[in-house]
Design brief:
- It is built from three helices and 15 strands.
- The chain is mainly beta.
- It has a single domain, classed as Jelly Rolls (Sandwich), CATH 2.60.120.
- The longest helix is centred in the C-terminal third of the chain and has 7 residues.
- Strand 12 and strand 13 form a beta hairpin.
Length: 258
């Protein structure tokens, strides 16, 4: 499998406070503006294996430190649709390049439903430090939160064959668990718009998964360029050599905030 292509400046998108406001826990809160910066399409790669074609896109995102009211700065959040002809959604891989990220992932029964009807059956708070890689599991909405005083810079590999779904994440004003500023560490507050939440809030850390291209000390950009056959699961998660959950370890679980 060969990969033609290369790096490009990418298309800069500034996520303004006005774009984010409807998705905040407090839509009247003030904070950084622009909220964050996305460089989409820094790299595009295409490969063929028999009749199967694979299309990947590499992006960069910069989240400055800050807050909106008592909520840490985060992305708008989104869901991925189902892969055409399959009962599973598209996955995604992030790599923290600078800073520390908290990835909030929640699995729902219907990603298009509003918070009053959707059922959330699992919430995972995945903490990743610079150099670590994080899997965004298929079927899970996800939000990236900067809980430190440092800028957060992260990259992602994703299939270029679909568009993310934002509407329900915005309508719900974020995930069912808001990440807020605490005395020493982040505190977690239930988003009251959600009527059906799980009993536990799970905390997790990334785990190396060489079969998925997630190798300590090796950037994901280089890994996909050199070993694209390991990354076909981003275009069809059923092709993953191991379970995608093997790339994370649940460290503890606590009662869901009331």
């Amino acid at each position: 499998m060969r990969l033609p292509g290369g790096l490009e400046p990418g298309r800069l998108e500034r996520r303004r406070l006005a774009d984010l406001r409807e998705a905040l826990a407090d839509p009247d809160a003030e904070g950084p503006d622009p909220a964050y910066y996305m460089y989409q399409g820094v790299a595009h790669f295409t490969a063929k294996e028999g009749r199967q074609a694979y299309h990947w896109r590499y992006d960069l995102t910069v989240l400055p430190p800050g807050r909106y009211g008592d909520e840490y700065l985060r992305t708008v959040g989104h869901y991925h649709p189902l892969i055409k002809g399959k009962a599973v959604a598209w996955p995604e891989v992030y790599e923290v390049l600078h800073g520390s990220a908290l990835f909030v992932q929640q699995r729902v029964d219907d990603y298009r439903a509003g918070p009053d009807t959707v059922r959330v059956d699992e919430v995972i708070l995945l903490r990743a430090e610079a150099g670590e890689k994080a899997i965004m599991l298929p079927g899970y909405g996800h939000w990236t939160v900067n809980v430190t005083p440092e800028p957060l810079v992260f990259s992602n590999w994703i299939s270029a064959d679909f568009s993310s779904y934002y509407e329900s994440a915005i309508r719900a004003r974020g995930p069912c668990c808001h990440v807020k500023v605490g005395p020493r560490t982040p505190k977690y507050a239930r988003n009251r718009l959600y009527l059906h939440v799980p009993a536990k809030l799970k905390h997790a850390r990334p785990v190396a998964a060489p079969e998925l291209g997630l190798v300590p000390g090796r950037p994901i950009l280089r890994e996909l360029q050199q070993r694209p056959e390991r990354w076909t699961y981003l275009c069809d998660s059923e092709q993953a050599a191991v379970s995608l959950r093997s790339a994370m370890r649940i460290t503890r679980a606590e009662p869901f905030p009331r």
